[in-house]
Amino acid sequence: MARDERALLLEVHQALPEEQFQSLKFLLEGQIPAGLLLPASRPELCRILLQRFPGNSLRVTAGILRQLGRLDLIQHFQLPLEEQIPEETPREPNRDTPKLRGDPTSGCRPGGIPDPPVNPRRLAEKDLMQIAQRLGKEWQEVGILHLGLERSRLEQIQEENPGNPVLWNFEMLREWWRRERHKATVSQLRSCLEPARLDPGILDFLQSLQGN
């Protein structure tokens, strides 16, 4: 059984493009020390997972693949999945005190335009990864002008994830997501990104999430 698990795990890792393989390692950092993960090749990462999660490495990998939006690989390799953990129920915003985008608590940066009504669909980390994969080279402009993040934090993100633009985008979005907490909804992010110079497909993707 262990041998089958090892072979299947390697097949899964080999099916990932390089950027997604690096993203897989990044998302494992909460469970495995970064010093082991960062230099690991695909076979080495398989060995680490088998040692750290004996008999459970496929389930752990499937959980990360779900965050990456690779449900196709989970289905193709018939990987086991934990039950979906319900997302935090968002609190109802106080409609008596509408916030402006210039307000640091509003979730967006300048403009002085009231935010639209909040969609209760809160973004999940897998949504952020899918958006990150669609963002282009203007990520720092988006972070500073439209998400209200500090340039120094964006430079730190870049240093911590050398040569991986998808992770730069993901960490930038996650920084905003953590700051906004229950207000980090699909509609809130869409209103933040609408004025940005982005591929229209990103707004279309967010619109599709609103319907979910």
Automatic annotation (TrEMBL):
Pfam families: Death (PF00531), PYRIN (PF02758). This is CRADD protein. Residues 147-194 form the Death domain. It comes from the Eukaryota. It comes from Lanius ludovicianus (Loggerhead shrike). Residues 82-120 are annotated as: Disordered. Residues 88-102 have a biased composition (Basic and acidic residues). Residues 4-79 form the DED domain. GO terms for biological process: regulation of apoptotic process; signal transduction. Signal peptide: none annotated.
